[in-house]
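Bit of a strange request maybe. I'm writing a small parser for structure token strings and I need a real example to test against, not something I typed by hand. Could someone generate the tokens for this chain?
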Amino acid sequence: MTSTAMQIIASYLHLLAVAIYLGGTIAMEFVLGPAQKYIPPAQAQVVAQRSADRFLVLVWGSLALFPISGMLLFFSLGDQHLVAKGHFISSSYGQTLVTMMILWVVLVINGSLITFFLRPKLTRKASAGTTGSTMSGKIEEMVSAAKWIERITRADLVIALFIVLLGASLSYGNGIL
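Reply from user aminoacidic:
Good idea to test on real output. This should exercise your parser:
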């Protein structure tokens, strides 16, 4: 496979991952979230659970595709010679790329918090012998988890938009940092 073909495939995969992650996050935050306020709470919970289950598959797929397609793109562009030189980290290009990688790690950490810590709190069910005080504690825990998911999702949206700006600065220049 030629370097040009690899570059086209890597660029396509990278942009696809960005579109899925960013587009999905925007749709969940600005379309689905506000729409749920107009349906009964029990139905809103089912819609949120089902849509989040499907969206998380896309999110984790995108997060996995970012480094793979990014590395393919990096090597297909022939930029690996920059790493061999000692001044990669001191260059604007290197600082921008490292910043993007650090922000990707933040997205992975936030996704892990949502997937493995906060979402399970939302799906806990009351057992048969649950008392009123225990139930109110579970409800408070669920509300708190939902608020944290909302905050983290909004932070992820801002981070993802910033990563896109950094990526554009690499594509059309030498980075901005």
